[in-house]
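User: Can you predict the 3D structure for this chain?
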Amino acid sequence: MSCDPLKPYNALPDLPPAGACETVAVLKHCITAARSLAELKAASSQLPNPALLTHNLVLLEAQASSEIENIVTTHDELFSAERHPADQLEPATKEALRYRDALWVGLDALAAGKPLCTNVYISIMQCLRGTDAGLRSTPGTTLSNPSSGEVFYTPPEGEALLRDRLGALDRFIHDPQIDLDPLIKIALTHYQFEAIHPFADGNGRSGRILCILQLLAEGLLSEPVLYLSGAILADKSTYYERLRAVTLQADWEGWLCYFLQAINRAAKQAVHTIAQIRQRADELEQHIRQHLPAKAPHHALAELLVELPYCGIASLVERGLAKRQTAASYLQQLVDSDAGFSVRKIGRENMYVHDRLIAVLSQGARHDYKLQDTQNISVSRDQRLWPKP
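Assistant: Here is the predicted structure, written as structure tokens:
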């Protein structure tokens, strides 16, 4: 495989690769990752209310995926964002929230029975960027070191060629005659999408959303609860090295092993986080039964306060759990009874912040995902597809 960083990689080969993908090392990691995903699917299916999980873990995935692109927001800003007027949000927080919304665009497409295809990718990107732009149509796109200006990669160019390459990728994803493990196909697809680089911006985030959608479409997940970007963010220099090694050396085995290990560790951490969320919900319900009036909707209130780490009086009223004065009383009693809540003024409204839950979610986000057992890669730092941040 030959690629000149200064010239458009118009000769990017279609998938599948010419060489063998299902090596012994790859299959070993594939089995391990599939087992962890099965555990995650089982754990998420046991939740009586999936919203307890999806609302918060999707936000964490949005935050990490955006941070990979150096768009940084805090958990506090992210979880409180829905209670702030849009014009008061930090730009990075708006970007992360658009990632969440773009993921739901993809989920809606799957729910409507649409196959993953170029039009879906474009819809996801448009939501991410808040634009009506389509595929790249002008030449001159390069990926370079922002400090030195050194070009690391020049993707294919020309809208017709990009559409052709994406069409070939679509056929690869859906071709039943390609006898590869679904996880291997997802890993191959992710590399190819990033190498095509079909958009002027938002390629990395769109590609990671595509990974989640493929896992759901293949039945490997039942809810979008894999915190894959957390695993990548913890060791993103290796992520970029592995991608670059495919381009320079056709090192598919190194990339596949890396990607599968990232899936495995992200799935294991998600299982752990789900267990902690369930435990916190049970503890909170017990606390509510002990400290709030007997007529209080104990179970429903506990679920709401786990689903929404920043909860206002209006949320209880909207869910039909209490009238406004009673809702205010319930929430204040939780603060006063040391249930792990604090009060924060946002605009004109008091928000009741579930500090103990946010600590659980933050712990999951800080988990050490770094892959200690990846193979060495013989690509010098100045050959990276993208520069080390």
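The chain has two domains: 24-273, 275-363. The CA atoms of residues 76 and 358 lie 8 Å apart.
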